[in-house]
Write a structure and sequence with these properties.
Largest sheet: 8 strands, antiparallel
Distance between the termini: 46 Å
Helix content: 25-40%
Number of domains: 2
CATH topology of the largest domain: Creatine Kinase, Chain A, domain 2
Structural class: alpha+beta
Strand content: 15-25%
Bound molecules: adenosine-5'-diphosphate, arginine
CATH superfamily of the largest domain: Glutamine synthetase/guanido kinase, catalytic domain
Shape: globular
Length: about 350
Amino acid sequence: MMIKPNTYPKFPRDCHSLLSKYLTPEVFASLQHKTTKNGFSLQQVINSGVENPDSGVGVYAGDEDSYRVFAELFDPIIAEYHGFASSDSHVSNLNADDLDASNPDPDGLYIISTRIRVGRNLAGYPLGPAISSDQRNEIAQRVSQLLSNLDDSLRGNYYPLSGMDEQVRKRLVADHFLFKAGDRFMQAAGMNRDWPEGRGIYHNGDKTFLVWINEEDQLRIISMQTGGDIKQVFTRLSNALGEIGSKLEFMSNQHLGYISSCPTNLGTAMRASVHIKLPRLAKNMDSLKSITDRHELQIRGIHGEHSDSQDAVFDISNRRRLGITEVDCVRGLYEGIVALIAAERAQ
Ligand code: ADP
Ligand code: ARG
């Protein structure tokens, strides 16, 4: 469905997105003629959720200014998703020494792999929905150049998506290392423009440290490995962020932490996940969901967001990212996983 400019969108009855909940006719009337410093409009903010009524959220920011100009819409969405009030401020803690989380599955019976990613965008540029092709290419050039100077266990190579061998690309996606082509939510947000130009992946030799360039965020910085040693994965990420963050200025502010185009990724911009096999709980999804809800965890399928679980393997990750520290995100995942493994054993 295309939105008619300056017309209040019609949401179907079965639409439960946060956009449909908080874009009241009054909020629409108050925001419809506003634009950000980069010319990003309300219509652009809401297009993804209007075209995709099955969105959970449905809005994207085109720049940091979007969160200020369209605060009447973003603030209640952020409050509901993260439990974070517009008067709160965000605190970061990436110190691995503060993380009390041993391997919740030392015998390797349940956890297949652990991955922690953060999103980052560069200060001084628009976000994905509003960036120009030249700016995107400039970022790819700057970031890949910087990464090529990393040493030791972070040393690796950059592989642009343009011109990548199709078999190689498919293998990287299937093995959970590379992003897929942008989905319909990103498409409607304007984030797939000029695909695949300016996109790519950097990774070290054993693919435990990876950086996605110009997917949903300008950088997705990822640490992952097989097994459940959450602390080792966090430590690697924290070290890498120290290196990269000393050379690039990321877009951030005191209130919202690291800025991302999707409000679900604000703050820490961190998703810490395990791929975990839970064959007994898989037959009792209510019980599984009651544990993940209690620990504020999200369940995804094993091929990423909007995919299904297979063979009783689930992707379990922290749901909140703003108003809690990075250490809290990972500790929350750890506690939830301990509870899930105990429940699986008790079934
Ligand atoms: P993001 O994590 O960046 O929000 P997705 O949910 O789409 O995006 O996941 C990206 C990729 O990372 C997918 O291929 C997914 O299967 C993979 N992935 C996520 N968590 C893990 C994990 N713990 N182990 C291995 N692969 C993972
Ligand atoms: N816009 C989509 C929705 O509202 C995805 C939101 C979260 N995921 C993301 N990749 N940003 O359902």
